[in-house]
Amino acid sequence: MNSLRHLLPYLKPYRTAIIFGSVSALISSGIGALGPWLLKLAIDSIQAGNASHELLKYALLIVGVALVAGFFRFLMRWILIGMSREVELDLRNRVFKHLQSLSASFYNKHRTGDLMARMTNDLESVRSILGPGIMYPIDTFGLAVFSIIMMIIVSPKLTLYVLLMTPVVSVSVFYLGRLTHKLYTRIQEQYSALSDAAQENISGARIVRAFAQEEREIRKFDMLNREYVIRNVAMVKMQALFMPLMFLFFEIGAAIILYLGGRGIIQGVMSLGDFVAFVGYLGMLEWPMIAIGWVANLIQRGAASMKRINEIMKVPPEIAQPERSRMPQEIRGEIVFKSVSFGYEKSEILREINLHIKPGQTVAIVGRTGSGKTTLVNLLTRLFDPTFGTVLIDGIPTTEWDLEKLRAEIGMVPQDAFLFSTTVERNIAFGRGNARREEVEKVSGIAQIDKDVADFVNGYETRVGERGLTLSGGQKGRVTLARALIRDPRILILDDALAAVDTHTEEEILNRLRDFMKGRTSIVISHRVSTVKHADRIYVLEGGKIVEQGKHDELLKQGGYYAELERRQRLEEELEREA
Ligand code: ATP
Ligand code: MG
To answer: Which residues are within 8 A (CB) of 304 and not within 5 positions of it... i.e. 6 or more apart?
Structure first.
């Protein structure tokens, strides 16, 4: 229940709406409470033997009361449910904004399906506390208070008997609430698991087919799905038990009133009109009694969901905008790593890295797979921060840079090319929001994707399937290269970006890039000697440490990893030429 406290700030802007909605609710129940009273007056008047026009007056009044009460009920629903949608909008935007601010390590730990479930299903159940969860308590409270007041006026003694039921009802509602919270949390957890399974299978549809694992995946999904139903049925069972229980209490109450009230009429201490009015008010209490259970259920669900949303909202962004950011006078693109060590979790991936890349230099990083190359460049854009040591760009630690400006200076072509499900043009222009077609074409030329695009049915307007699935691996790599180039960055990073294109195309691209890279610092990661041999400096990474460094020729002389790599690739080339 404590988690609901977090909702208060979202409700604040809607104070007026809540007040108007609540007032409408109270007016509606207040006026509605006149109904049974009018009935009593009508019956008393029949018994007094009054004329029928007298009766017509009461009949019209009863209709009038119903109309007015109905109108305010309409206002109440409109205002309060409408408000809950507005709050839902705020909350959803807030969660999305927060998700955008969270760092890469958060996404390492959380699964997509689970986050989606919280953004949709949980948000919906929080919304239902805001609308119905505010509306019904006010509404039923009004109804209950007015009915009880009227009952006391009619017969204090009978009212006392009715109120004897309250403790029983309260205790039941309390236990219902606790149980609901527990059961609903379990349901939502399972829903997350289900979403995850669906999401992974849809994303990985091709892999599942390729490995002919459909049957197994279907069985796995079926099991998750069944468990989801089992947990839901547990909740249904509890509710199914609760409702009749509430009715039972109510009917017992009604029976007692019938007996005692009836005796009162026989003994002449109660008029028939009073008795009918009393039963009418008792009827008005029926709805609040049932609503209490329903609302308790709703609120507990909402609280359980709010807790799940808060779990995400309270994760602080690890990589945040520094409070006081610094910027160099002029951005030159000098990169320094000062005894940088880094680990994703406990184990160290990078150890004591020292680098000095001068502005305008082209530097290459080679090394076995898993040696930490990608990790190293990820520190530059602050996808992660070093565990120890400092990364400086133009003499200022990256952690002190304005985060957005820092990232604006870096054009990153990641190893796993990710594209959005939109057109080729928009994927390239993504690098810079307002890029024009000519600019897109220019960088496409450098990245050598222009000829491919010309062959596409709709040219630059061709939609790439989700995550670029309709492009070849090499095409994706080149689109992501164009996307980085269009940023016109001071620092360009190619993380094995051209691995999926043939050596001939790669050479073409590198030739064109050479022009582009003039005056820019670039870091090129590759497994191919042909890609890196012209670099001003080549670093060899091994187990997260720099083990060799120097120019191509110097490294060949050292006879280490690089020399071995070069020898092997030269042999392969020779074999190919002979074949
Ligand atoms: P490759 O040539 O295959 O791209 P790499 O040199 O780029 O390899 P990295 O991706 O930097 O290697 O990975 C270095 C080590 O860090 C690996 O052992 C890998 O298992 C680990 N690692 C990489 N990314 C993560 C991550 N997000 N969370 C935890 N560990 C990671
Ligand atoms: Mg890598």
So the answer is: 125, 181, 184, 185, 188
What's the CATH number for 417-488?
3.40.50.300
CA–CA gap between residue 253 and residue 436 (Å, rounded): 76
**CATH architecture label of 329-409+491-579:** 3-Layer(aba) Sandwich (3.40)
The whole model's pTM is what? 0.79
The angle, 0 to 180 degrees and rounded to 10, between the axes of the packed helices 132-154 and 272-313 is: 160
Per-residue pLDDT of 336-359, as tens digits, reads: 999 999 998 888 999 999 999 999
Q: Among 375, 376, 366, which Cα is nearest to 531's? A: 366
Portions of the chain given CATH number 3.40.50.300: 329-409+491-579, 417-488
- Model confidence pLDDT, tens digit, residues 136-189: 888 888 888 888 898 899 889 888 888 887 788 878 888 888 888 899 999 999
Measure 422 CA to ligand 2 centroid, in angstroms.
Answer: 26
Pocket probe for ligand 1: among 105, 349, 546, the residue whose CB has the most ligand atoms within 8 Å is 349
Distance CA 476, CA 489 (A): 20
* Residue 363 Cα to ligand 2 middle (Å): 16
**Closest Cα to residue 429, out of 487, 476, 381?**
487
